[in-house]
Write a structure and sequence with these properties.
Layout lengths: L1 H15 L3 H4 L5 H17 L3 H19 L6 H19 L5 H19 L10 H17 L2 H25 L2 H16 L10 H19 L6 H39 L1
Helix pairs in contact: 1-11, 3-4, 3-6, 4-5, 5-6, 5-8, 6-8, 7-8, 7-10, 8-9, 9-10
């Protein structure tokens, strides 16, 4: 019984305490670049533009070194380069408001995370503000309020623009292009869209595409290493219980045999 209690305690300990093999892992070069992009975003949010600029410049130098060792696709290089350049340009423009600078650096930050993340990317966390902004567009369209429609559409487009490059990295080309086509239609024909009969059907179709976009990117966030610990430890416990049961059965058999011999 004490042996069983020991292994159950060990099992709980391994689940609740971080695995030592994971804790000692050193960050990879691409993880360090991901951290740099996050630091640049935090400096931008704090209004510390010079520090953000230095981090972005340092990122460029480090990424050039990494790209010589690790292969990236042409699309990945293009999207990351464009988002990085826009982030740096926004930091250098003194006339831009803080929100515009933050949006530009956030876009770059999400692209870098999309390149680095193995599971659910950060841009998926933009689901609530984007769907909320889109709902404002639908409400304005349903009420026929042109001014409100123009305003809410601009808000939605601004938020979607932040995650658009990251979507292209994580979503199949056909789906990304289809989504872009719907959004481009609403933007280019915004003056006529409220007068057309297909306005609500277009908005409904776009809403469905957006919902599927976020739903399909939601993955099990459990750490694979945790499952490995659970499975391996569980195997040990099952083996131990089987062994203890076998020993108990064998012991009972020997006792019965011994009693028969005495009789």
């Amino acid at each position: 019984m004490k042996l069983i209690q020991f292994f159950i305690t060990l099992f709980l300990f391994l689940i609740l305490v971080p695995h030592p093999l994971i804790a000692v892992e050193s960050p990879s070069p691409i993880n360090e670049l991901d951290d740099l992009s996050d630091q640049a975003l935090q400096m931008t949010k704090a209004g510390r533009y010079e520090e953000a600029k230095h981090l972005l410049v340092y990122f460029s130098e480090e990424f050039a070194s990494l790209s010589a060792q690790q292969s990236f696709s042409m699309d990945e290089l293009r999207i990351l380069t464009i988002s990085h350049n826009l982030a740096l340009e926004s930091i250098n423009q003194t006339s831009l408001a803080l929100e515009q600078k933050v949006n530009a650096v956030t876009k770059f930050r999400l692209v870098m995370d999309a390149l680095n993340s193995q599971h659910q990317p950060l841009w998926v966390e933009m689901e609530d503000p984007i769907m909320e902004a889109f709902n404002g567009v639908k409400v304005a369209a349903e009420s026929g309020n042109v001014d409100e429609y123009q305003t809410t559409l601009n808000v939605f487009l601004s938020k979607y623009n932040i995650i658009q490059p990251s979507i292209k990295l994580d979503v199949p080309v056909e789906r990304a292009q289809s989504l872009d086509a719907r959004i481009t239609y609403l933007d280019h024909y915004r003056q006529d869209v409220l007068e057309g009969e297909q306005t609500m059907s277009e908005l409904t179709a776009l809403e469905t595409d957006l919902q599927k976009l976020f739903e399909n990117m939601t993955e099990d966030e459990a750490d694979p290493s945790l499952w490995w610990v659970i499975i391996s430890t569980g195997s040990i416990i099952v083996s131990t219980l089987s062994y203890v049961g076998w020993r108990k059965y064998k012991g009972q058999g020997e006792m019965k045999k011994s009693e028969r011999q005495k009789n």
